[in-house]
Amino acid sequence: MRVLAADIGGTKTLFQIIEWAEKREDRHVLVEHRYHSNDYLSFDTLLQEFLSEVDNKITKDLVSACFAVAGPVVNGVAKATNLPWQLDPEALKVKFKIPQVILINDFQAQGYGIECLCPDDFAVLQQGDPELKAPQTLIGAGTGLGQALLVWHEQLGHYQVLATEGGHVDFAPSGPFQIKLLEYLSQSLARVSYERLLSGSGLVNIYRFLKEQSPAAENPALKDAMREGDPAAAISRFAMEYEDSLANKSLELFAQIYGAQAGNLALTCISQGGVFIGGGIAPKILKYLQAGGFMKAFLNKGRLSVLLEHIPVKVILEPKVGLWGASLVAARYKDRKM
Q1: For the domain that residue 326 is a member of, what is the CATH number?
Q2: Residue 150 vs residues 70, 124, 198: alpha-carbon distances, Å
Q3: Residue 98 in marked binding region
Q4: Is residue 6 part of an annotated ligand binding site?
């Protein structure tokens, strides 16, 4: 079964054509291309270019396509959050003569992609004692904070991924210092959600708060790097490469808040099948997630800490998990086994 998949982000778009065999592990990638999203006025234009670059012998046998979009999908139609793109599956199906087209949220695609991964694609923070077919959860900080539920569907024989907007719930500080953080952010924000802390811009918010606590601690070189480029990337780089004190403290606090919200999500869903940490930030700051602060905050749930001790917690290391998820959805959609 030959399908087309795309993972559409504000910065880049990945395309993949894959041949799925009866056994999922026997899949074979035929074509994979990467494009800069901002170079194209519409997704149609980009898709047309991709298809024109691929041998017709490969594209003529496509049975379905799934496009994962960084943006909301409402009534089947998707609007990219950071691009002037709107995708209509029916219009795409007719224009490009693809039998079936489905659109899903990009974070939802990550959830489906978990099934395609192997043990080496994860970093284990807590081994736990997973319960077969029990609920699983996915949380991932990147441009924003994504959260999703994975619920076993007995008739279909696999997990279904339910997108949420849980990243926008109110930030609940843990201890006096985080209360100060909340008070600091409340000076400029009408409402402080977890996404205001657990995202690229959230890391910058944490850094600025810590800088205000100790103004003399700021590294002039880091200050310049933040002004000239991506400030969150600069903070991470100075922490990882130069062991900058303020950048280090920022990532340590980021990891603690990340662990607390992952634990909140695990409690909300009783995720005895596992908690997965996705998104683009986690693999880049893995040593901070492994240092202990993340899991300490994850487990700090009072009387229910014992419950969380049995839940597996894993960081997803595979950067193309969303692309794999979209491809798997395309293969299942052909047979209506979503």
Answers
A1: 3.30.420.40
A2: 19, 19, 21
A3: no
A4: yes
Q: 330 and 208, same structural domain?
A: no
* Residue 324 lies in domain: 2-114+319-334
Report the distance separating Cα 259 and Cα 214, nearest Å. Answer: 25
**Minimal CA–CA distance to 253: which of 223, 209, 214?**
209
* Distance, first Cα to last Cα, the chain: 16
59 is in an annotated binding site: no
Is residue 59 within 8 A of residue 51, CB to CB? The reply is yes
Beta bridge partners of 295: none
Read off the tokens for 88.
């209509």
Residues 94, 207 share a domain:
no
Find out whether 68 is annotated in a ligand binding site.
Answer: no
Q: Model pTM?
A: 0.92
Q: What is the pLDDT of residues 275-318, one digit of tens each?
A: 999 999 999 999 999 999 999 999 999 999 999 999 999 999 99
Q: What is the pLDDT of residues 182-239, one digit of tens each?
A: 999 999 999 999 999 999 999 999 999 999 998 878 999 999 999 999 999 999 999 9
